[in-house]
Amino acid sequence: MSWQFPRLLIECSILWARRRKYLLSGLLSCGQCGGNLTVAGKGARRRYYCANHKEKGKAVCTGMPGLSETDAAESILSGLRTGLMQDAAYEDFRKTFVEKVRAQEHETGEALRRHDVDLSRFDAAPLIASTATKETNYGTETHR
Predict the structure, then answer these.
(1) DSSP notation for the chain
(2) Burial 5-28 (b: 16+ CB within 10 A, else e)
(3) Nearest in space to 23 (alpha carbons), one of 108, 89, 82, 80
(4) Mean pLDDT of the chain
(5) What is the dihedral of CA 24, 25, 27, 30, to 10 degrees?
(6) Phi, psi at residue 36, to the nearest 5°?
(7) Mean pLDDT of 42-53
(8) CB 75, CB 23: distance < 8 Å
(9) d(CA 33, CA 61)
(10) pLDDT tens-digit readout, 8-30
(11) Which percentage of the chain shows pLDDT scores above 70?
C-alpha cells in the first residue's frame, strides 16, 4: 500500500502541471453561444477565447476577438467592488441566502415527514418472521 502514495503524488503533479488555473477559469462564457471561455497565449498576450469556436469551428460559434486576461480580471473585480461590496447589496444577498437556506430546511423536513409516514405504513412483521424462520432452519434447509 505504501507504493501507491508516491505514485498518486506523481500522477497528481502531472495533472496539475498540465492544467493551469486562471482567476476566472470556469466563470466566463461566450456572449454569442454560451460556451466556456478558455485562455490562450502567453504573458501579456494571454486572452480569453470561446472554446466552442476554437475547438468546433464557425458552425457552432462565430467567435470573438478575445478578451485580455488583465482586462477581464479588472472588469470583474471592479464590478464586485462597486456592486457587491455595498451595504445594500450585501443585505440583499444575506436575505436571499437566508430565505434559500430556510426553504431547503423546510423541504428537507417535509421529505423526512413523508418518509416517516411511509415507514409507519410498512409492516415489517412478516419480513422479520421470515428472516427468523430462515435463521432457525438454516441447518435443515435443502438446496436443489
Answers:
(1) -TTHHHHHHHHHHHHHHH----TTTTT-B-TTT-PBEEEESSGGG-EEEEHHHHHH-TTT------EEHHHHHHHHHHHIIIIISSHHHHHHHHHHHHHHHHHHHHHHHHHHHHHHHHHHH---HHHHHHHHHHHHTGGG----
(2) eeeeeeeeeeeeeeeeebebeeeb
(3) 80
(4) 77
(5) 100
(6) -70, 150
(7) 85
(8) no
(9) 6
(10) 555 555 555 555 577 777 778 88
(11) 76
Q: Which amino acid is at 46?
A: R
- Cell, residue 33: 453561444
C-alpha cell at 80: 464586485
Whole-angstrom distance, CA of residue 44 vs CA of residue 10? 31
The C-alpha cell of 49 is what?
477565447
